[in-house]
Amino acid sequence: MTMDLHERARQILRQNDRGGYTLPTHGLYPYQWNWDSAFAAWGFATFDLPRAWDEFDTLLASQWEGGMVPHIIFHDPDPSYFPGPDVWSTGQSPATSGISQPPVAATMVRRVWEMNREHGHNRLAAIYPKLVAWHRWWHEVRCVHGPAAITHPWESGRDNCPDWDIGMAGVDGSNVGPYTRRDTGHVDPSMRPQKEQYDRYIAMVQFGVSVGWDQKRIVDEGPFLMADPGITFILLRAHEDLIALGQALGEDTQEIAHWAETLRAALPEIWNPDLGAYDAKNLRTGEFAGILGSGALLAYVANAGNPELDAHLMRVWDAVNYGIPSADPHHPSFDARRYWRGPSWPFLNALIAIGFRDMGRHDLDNRLRRETAAAIAKNGFAEYFDPLDATACGGMDFTWTAAIWLTWAGLDAEENRGAA
Q1: What is the SS3 assignment for 378?
Q2: Residue 361: partners with Cβ closer than 8 Å, 6 or more residues away
Q3: Residue 388 maps to which CATH number?
Q4: Which residues are catalytic?
Q5: Measured between alpha carbons, how far apart are the two ends of the chain, in Å?
Q6: Alpha-carbon span 283 to 154, nearest angstrom
Q7: Is the link from the previous residue into 162 a cis peptide, with omega within 30 of 0?
Q8: Strands (DSSP E) along 249-297, which ranges?
Q9: Number of structural domains, the chain?
């Protein structure tokens, strides 16, 4: 069975391959997504290293002049997706969205490079300056208030999580005009964001268009600005991985080290003492979200855990059966099958597990791997899973779930100690 799943995972990566970039899945997501691509590269590296490097090249080829790497790249028009390039109107070629996504690329580049350093040296040297420019963009544009901030829930990659509810409440979505969603035609609507939320998402896109995607104006004047623990921790880890890559290339990494030090020093700003955990914060009002989300638990990938957070981790993890839930199961907002409001996501489990292994907590890593593998073995390569009964949710034949099977979830305990 395990070997069959390995072959099926490779088939999914191949069938979603569009020649240099990979679709997350057919129908629901017909373009190239930023952090999906980074995980796809990690998966490809287990059986096709050159193709893994091609994925990074294609992603970074659409970097904006200011350094931002957008969250969607619209290589080929597809009317099955909304909002498409005409709605975003960024003026880029190829067309892209106007926001970014969690910068996991440097972390994934390091993992791919470490699989075969000699083969990857020249490929790494070619993209390293682009990664540095993207990290500089995060430091100079999105970290101006200390922690990493997002200007749209989609930028977090955890689009619909309860973390953003307090910020979303201040967004007026009543005047966005008529539009036709496509996601609910591919997936059970009960698993997707509700219309009221989607109206607000579109209002934020329309604001970006109205200011010509001037990123400074969006941060200063936009309808939504929240500190995101998830991106803060991913970026902090990515800074450290980028330093390691730069040192291997003989580059001066002092600038990146400064960004990392500055960002780590800002972590107390997203610690909510009332919650006893890291928390999303509305930077327009100073209000905390007041809910333990998956972003807070990404602290482990950045070596930012502590005993108080450990207690929360075990509390929410022990309340479910298949991996770490994306929202607190004890909170009223928890929804086991709705996008980011409770489900377990294999790729996010893998990121957290990287942190567990770095801590030497192989017991936690192996538990999380077993539970993630059990969900996939039970119900296939779904986008995400109900953490209570492993019901497959979202899209199927999903790229990053296949990649995570090949790199982490599908490995037995002994292989897993040295592989991810």
Answers
A1: helix
A2: none
A3: 1.50.10.10
A4: 159, 383
A5: 21
A6: 17
A7: no
A8: 271-272, 277-278, 281-282, 287-288
A9: 1
